What does this fold into?
Amino acid sequence: MKFKLLVAFVLLTFATYAQQDSQQDSLRVLNRLGYNNPSKLTLGGYAQIDYNEPDGAAPGKLDVHRLVLLFGYKFSDKVSFLTEIELEHVKEVYVEQAFVNYSFSTAFNVRGGLMLVPMGYVNEYHEPPVFYGVERPGLDKYIVPTTWRELGIGATGNLQNASLKYQAYIFNGFISYKDGEGTLRGVDGLRKGRQKGAESVIHNPNLSIKLDYYGILGLKVGVAGYFGETQSDDPSVEGSTVGVTMLGLNASYNYRNLGFRGQFIYTSLSGTEDYNNLTGKDLGSELNGLYVEAAYNFLPLISKKSTKALNIFSRYEMYDTHAATEGDLERNAAFDRNNITLGLDFKIAPGVAIKTDYQWFNDAVEGSNPDNMFNAGIGVMF
It folds into this structure.
């Protein structure tokens, strides 16, 4: 797995994907913050309705997977507030974002509140019409636990002369020990440790930084880092926390109707042997993965004047939440996974996508035959 990751990482630096260039990303964020809206109040949101059928065998499952409502208010040219309220599966309610932004200039803003952690691409830009496929990539579920948001404060800005955007935050971290039990485990790494801004525990602040370069037409490259330690509701318990170092690289490139995207994430966790001995969990000491994706919009071949887009896309991803383990814990080959997704994405309007795809799943267990999946869905963003 490590050798394959190394080879694929080198290839990733030469062939990577794009769906939207940085100017479009910036415009979307500014619109959502209300900077281009003459009204002080901004309304928006996104929705995702899915159909999932395992291995072509009925019955399938229909689900209003997500419905997110965005509200923004601009108090002045410098001060704004943004929040997103999320309903999952019709019945679960979360606050996805809630932060105040103070803009000194385009190059320097200060933010505080519940914010998205800038790691990879999908965690920041996770609206359904933005990514290909009905479901988000597995890498952005098991390695980067999208939607990953934390409470904190930091600075953002766009250095236009250098074609460089930056973000730097101090956040609370994942909770690893609560009510006498461990929360982190091998199958999905850090995902169960997301505190989501709900009575969050903090005693070890964490640093999150990201740089995005957009100086070459059609190309965008992002480099991110997250450094710190998990949280415990009783930090006096030895072994109840683990150290976290996460590094990410994402890149995208668009040329006419052809686009490529790639992402690589490496995570190192320290102290997992003591943590597993304390909690009885099977948390790995290394989590990593990557994906590469290509898409082609062939609708212009049929109608050059069409404002719609019909993309055929393919994505290959590999990720391992047991890339390494400490102590007597043996690596679980079932956590070394790879997926292939092939599908169509029909954008009938700039914010509406009708999607369908088929996914092949595999893992490193000898003789394993996980169920493949047919998916169809509707994604909306406004």
